[in-house]
Amino acid sequence: MRRKPLVILLTILSGVLILGSLVFLFWSYQRAKTATDTRSQRAQIVQDFVQLGLERSQAGDLYAALEAFNVAIAASPDDAPQAYYYRALVYTQMERFEEALQDLTTALEQQPHFPQAYAARASVYLSLDRPASAVEDLNTAIQMGLTDDARVYLNRGLAYFQLDMYDLAEKDFLKALSLAPDSVAAHFNLGTLYLKMGDNDKALEHLDKTLQLDPNFAAAYFNRAMALAHLDRREEAIQDLERFLLMPITYNAQLQAQALLERLRSGKPLEPTE
After folding, report:
1. What is the domain-level CATH number for residue 244?
2. Measured on CA atoms in the order 175, 180, 185, 187, is the torsion positive or negative?
3. 8-state DSSP, 149
4. Which residues contact 157 (CB under 8 A, 6 or more apart)?
5. Number of folded domains in the chain?
6. What is the distance, to the nearest Å, from the Cα of residue 6 to the centroid of all Cα atoms in its chain?
7. CA 191/CA 214 separation, integer angstroms
């Protein structure tokens, strides 16, 4: 009978330990649940404000879109790749290219398999005159499966064009055209490329198509005038230049067109660089 108090004490201690374990498990569960709920709430905030930002952007209100994406990022700065991506697109429209580049890099750090972000960053690299970096990102986007978007090949073609890699540029522009046969940009880029390569007949073919698709494309009139002039079709070239000078163009473009127009009217031969 003397051992009974000891047995009772051990029983009480066992009960306390079990109760303590249950309390600890309950506390751990509640803490985890709270953390999960907080993450869930933050994810919902990100989703809601990204959607709001997209709606504002589509409505043309870029500043309101920017504010919405700012809120989304503030809610979860370490896990909001979509918000960074879409904010970068707004920055790009605003020509705030360095900020766009930073956001796209952050988006890719948070979500490495994000081909659209690679393609968008390549576009920013082109705007920053970094064609080699653009090619690298576009190669990655294509390797990740972004193979059916004509804009990807258009931009890589432009990057190759800037790098004087004309054969590769032609290949990409033709690929873009196969994906989007009525692409104004693809026809214009091909026309400009062939003009640069000295193939004026092909240049004329694509510049004609450009202006059929978009009769208000000012640069296409100037480039077509150049192709026509090289083909010794001066009167037609003069008509294109006169049309070009009536359009909203930069002062430098106006001076360049006037100089070419005077040369054509005077019957002087074109300069070798023209």
Report:
1. 1.25.40.10
2. positive
3. -
4. 168, 169, 170, 171, 172, 173, 176, 189, 193
5. 3
6. 76
7. 14
Note the residue count of the chain.
274
Tell me the pLDDT of the chain averaged across its residues.
Answer: 89
Going by C-alpha positions, the residue among 201, 146, 108 that lies closest to residue 155 is 146
Does residue 271 lie in a domain region? yes
Reported as a single tens digit per residue, the pLDDT across 8-66 is 444 444 444 444 443 443 344 344 345 455 788 889 999 999 999 999 999 999 999 99
Tell me the residue range of the domain where 147 lies. Answer: 113-181
Q: What pLDDT score was predicted for residue 272?
A: 58
The residue whose two tokens read 């919902």 is 44
Answer whether residue 12 is part of any domain. Answer: no
- CB 208 within 8 Å of CB 214: no
DSSP letters along 28-52, please?
HHHHHHHHHHHHHHHHHHHHHHHHH
